[in-house]
Write a structure and sequence with these properties.
Helix content is 46%, strand content 13%. Helix 1 links the parallel strand 1 and strand 2.
Length: 201
């Protein structure tokens, strides 16, 4: 048997029944596989989220407290660079659903689910890069915070802006630099003299 090129999916959902359904869909269609299942985002779950190395995360927003649901995407983005797909099991505003790279409906047919996961990964990896476009002053400030290891919420609080605004800045930084990892952005910040080594120790 050759190497396994299937993409890893992390499921964050309280329903074992739904998680099993995803496993069944993926085993039938072969392109993805369930790499891990978290029933919630309690303490310790964040560590798994950081270390699990998922390509795509499918999350049921019900795992978040009501007030956090509009920021579900950004809360996950603090721990993982994976594409994030929302699972439509509850009623939320259309704006709240728009935060996700893609939305899967619980009634979607298996090929549709696979297509949506593929689309989410594509949109995540193909953030169009604009060569030579300068970072704005605020984007440089956000980049420095990221390089220093600050979380989106800490950056938002520090500059008194919303987490959504922080994420928009981070997307723009990624688009302009073509760098998607925190380590890569840290190197970029060092090379461009935005920070010095002493500030990231």
């Amino acid at each position: 048997m050759g190497t396994d090129n299937r993409k890893n999916v992390l499921l964050i959902m309280p329903s074992a029944l739904v998680a099993r359904g995803f496993e069944s869909v993926f085993s039938d269609l072969g392109e993805f596989r369930v790499h891990g299942v978290l029933a919630d985002l309690s303490n310790g779950a964040e560590v798994r989220l950081k270390n699990i190395g998922a390509d795509v995360i499918v999350v049921d927003p019900v795992v978040f407290e009501y007030a956090s649901r509009a920021n579900a995407r950004s809360l996950i983005s603090q721990y993982s660079d994976a594409a994030v797909v929302g699972l439509r099991t509850i009623s939320m505003s259309e704006d709240a659903w728009k935060q996700f790279d893609e939305v899967v409906d619980i009634y979607d047919a298996p090929p549709v689910i696979v297509r949506k996961l593929r689309a989410a990964m594509t949109s995540r990896s193909e953030t169009p890069r604009t060569e030579g476009e300068e970072l704005s002053a605020r984007e440089k400030e956000i980049l420095v915070c990221v390089a220093k290891g600050m979380l989106n919420k800490e950056i938002a609080d520090y500059y008194s802006i919303s987490i959504h605004t922080v994420i928009t800045h981070r997307k723009n930084i990624t688009r302009k630099t073509g760098i998607r990892t925190v380590a890569g952005l840290t190197v970029y910040a060092l090379l461009n003299n935005l920070i010095d080594y002493s500030s990231i120790e």
